[in-house]
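Quick illustration for those who missed Monday's session on complexes.
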Amino acid sequence: MPGAYADIYRRSLEDPERFWAEAAQAIDWIKPWDRVLDTSNPPHNRWFRGGQLNTCHNAVDRHVAAGRGSQTAIIYDSPVTDTQSRLTYAKLQDLAARCAGALAARGITKGDRVVIYMPMIPEALVAALACARLGAVHSIVFGGFAAPELAVRIDDSRAKLVITASCGIEPTRLVPYKPLLDQAIELAKHKPEHVIIVQRPQQPAELRPGRDADWADAMAAATPHACVPVDATDPLYILYTSGTTGQPKGIVRDNGGHAVALNWTMRHIYDMAPGEVYWAASDIGWVVGHSYTIYAPLLAGCTTVVYEGKPVGTPDPGAFWRVIAEHDVKVMFTAPTAIRAIRQQDPEGKHLASHDLANLRALFLAGERCDPDTLQWCERQLGRPVIDHWWQTETGWSIAANCLGIEQLPVKAGSPTRPCPGWDVQVLDHAGHPTPRGDIGAICVKLPLPPGTFPTLWNADQRYRETYFTEYPGYYKTGDAGLLDEDGYVHVMARTDDVINVAGHRLSTGAIEEVLATHPDVAECAVVGAADDLRGQLPVGLVVLNAGANTASADVSQQCVELVRDRIGAVAAFKTAVVVDRLPKTRSGKILRGTIKKIADGEPYKVTPTIEDEAVLPTIASALAGAGYAKP
Ligand code: COA
Ligand code: AMP
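Prediction with coenzyme A bound:
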């Protein structure tokens, strides 16, 4: 309906408490809240203070109670194992209750942390829901992270128990998770007491007596556990994401606001009705997987698809279109990088044309800036709305989108459209004043943030306040720079910090630099995100060797690449470390990373007047050119 978006948006900002209290009616509460929004300890605003609910009940049990137990909750589609299966809501309830029982039998109770390190298999969702059922706090770690990253997360969350699988399956190799987990536990100061392992036939793991249990045995022996009432403000999960240092930030999500907001988004942003199939092709290790593979579709009574495969190569660039057609997917969500990968291999959409996509209503994209070319290619191929929307691990759902369930606004390629209801998006200048329309600045959100966002960082209240709320008092600093245009459309241009986005995955260049600096021959280093046609950005390292370093430059480069893979993981896609004599710096010693990035991208750059020695720039350009970068 024309004007519907403007009306709902205005109402959401004029009276957020009323707006979200109405949305909360769609959730089952064990005890109603005392206050819709508690702002007594800003910026740690808390939604639905005093309310009690259970997220697993809302995602599973209530649909069974409403008579929809025989509806499919989860479709598992795994081209890498050539398997497909389905779980009904009734079966999912049984499995979540059993898994909760298995956790309880190992001493897990409300508030305890459980790390989940698993591939894209239905058991991963069961594990998360089982934690929610008990009020335990899960922390899912992406399978592409190496052991030291897993260890940091085990230590920071002080997880009592880890749920894993014996292996993950990448198209060209098996990833044995168990040795990685053993190594991580070895490295961690905090030792989890129990491990539960899904044994996969492709590569079963050896169990350590006393600590490890086979998932199948644990489930068979378990007594099903009921849903435990938790406070709306109790944490549901911690999801670690990259910050500016090697120490990841534990984004905390609470139960009440999360259930209310995510359930609301399914209808209003994605235009989904209960019973329909929704597919977010994201690993559950990322926020998109948390919100839109696990929780939102189930909260809304939809069917969710768990896809263990890639956009290309499993077996071909028609894989996504096959899944949509075979499972009658109504709305799909993926990252632009996946579409670029498909387009590279199937530019004319021949694979797409061979599948019946008649029932697909829309494709949503997020995770990185969507270049207009990719969006338009996709629109041409699909002939239906392709919606770019913008969000972050911190926010849990989209800050800006074309809300199909409210009113479809005209698409402007390159913009994720307008702020979603609940989000008072403003662009601020250095002094904290709103910029004129069309001018670039820091994209900020006026407080309060809507429900479903992050009330704090795990064990790091001060870091939460300092990182996000101090520079622009009264606002949440998104860390993205951009503008609002004359129609109120948001344009997200770049990060303002040293976070880069590699294939829709968020990485910290600072964390990679910390790893490179541990190489004994490296005196100093700089990592930048260079533009990449497929992955959006790729990390590129420049390293300066210690005087008298014995190792040959080529060997140091190779060792640096291996170090990052071993310490951070394959997901960093770090393939280039170039040895240079010097790094470009200001006279005060600050490394000019912005200039290095421009050189790597072959873009014109300005020589800053404070540069220590401008003669270093051509040497950087030629070193990067030797590695395939710096092409005009
Ligand atoms: N477990 C273990 N290793 C993993 C992994 C996992 N779950 N996921 C990826 N990796 C490995 C890959 O095997 C690869 O290893 P390699 O260096 O030995 O080849 C490495 O991590 C880099 O992975 P990636 O950048 O994903 O490369 P890819 O070739 O496997 O796939 C794309 C490229 C573009 C197809 C893929 O990145 C993609 O689908 N991206 C979409 C991202 C996404 O959904 N983001 C979520 C936000 S919506
Ligand atoms: P993550 O926390 O991993 O989801 O990454 C969040 C970051 O990805 C944002 O801060 C943006 O920099 C970028 N991002 C996500 N979605 C979009 C989008 N639609 N347009 C532009 N940038 C995006």
